[in-house]
Amino acid sequence: MTIERQSAATVHRRFRGRKTINDWNAQQYDNFATPRQQAAHDLIAAVPERPMNAISDLGCGSGLSTQLLADRWPGTTITGIDQSPDMLKAAAIRVPLGVFRQGNISNFAAHEPQDLIFANASLHWLADHRILFPMLAKQLAPQGILAVQMPNNLEEASHRLMAEVASRAPFAEHLNELSTERGALLSPKEYYDCLVPSCETIRIWETHYHHVLDGPADILHWFSSTGLKPYLDILPAGKREDFARQYVKELSHHYPLQSDGKVLLRLPRLFIVASRSA
């Protein structure tokens, strides 16, 4: 079976193994802060207006989403959790009144029932969603809200091409044991069935964003701090540059220039807003 005939999720699973990625780079991630924040804005806008006493921001990153939460619910205790020291350092500067903890969000255990558990572009990195989502819902206060947004782009050209280039010589010899830390999302029906035993209202929808970027190289820069990062971290410096060059070349065939010389990066995102039963 050729790479072209495999699903992107299958290709990504092929590269799971013992090796892991380095720490995340907050400055690099924030290079596209404005378009990245759009989904967080949209997710927060879907959360019903009500007083909040305890909010957790899972995978808070550099604090972009934490700042939006603090603006929406001023005076509320907001705890941001992330594994990356560099991200947490940036978050603490961005949101001085936030409480930030280093930790693995797959093992999240709230100190008290939460009025809002917010996870913007973080849970898609975790496995076992059939276990994870009910576990999170059980940590909500009565009528507390679970608000989640996850990129659903493994089948997009941007991600298929990462795996395709990684399968070629001379990169494959370095990437065979790479852990990309990511699998395909469940279907909306499956997420609904995970949450309906403990939640009284569940909203699920998908939005396809079309981000305007300066060219194919900007798609490389966009994903170099997220989906592309595991590949680049493992490769030796010289081959890393060759990988990036080949990836951009492939991107140029799939993301043609618009009339003004820009390209449109299509990025589907899945949203879930669920309220726990009273």
TrEMBL record:
Methyltransferase type domain: residues covered: 57-147
Record carries keyword Methyltransferase: yes
Swiss-Prot/TrEMBL keywords: Methyltransferase, Transferase
Enzyme Commission numbers on file: 2.1.1.144
Molecular function, one GO term: trans-aconitate 2-methyltransferase activity
Signal sequence interval, chain numbering: none
Pfam families reported for this sequence: Methyltransf_11
GO biological process: methylation
NCBIfam families documented for this protein: PRK01683.1 (NF002463)
Name of the molecule in the record: Trans-aconitate 2-methyltransferase
Gene it is expressed from: tam
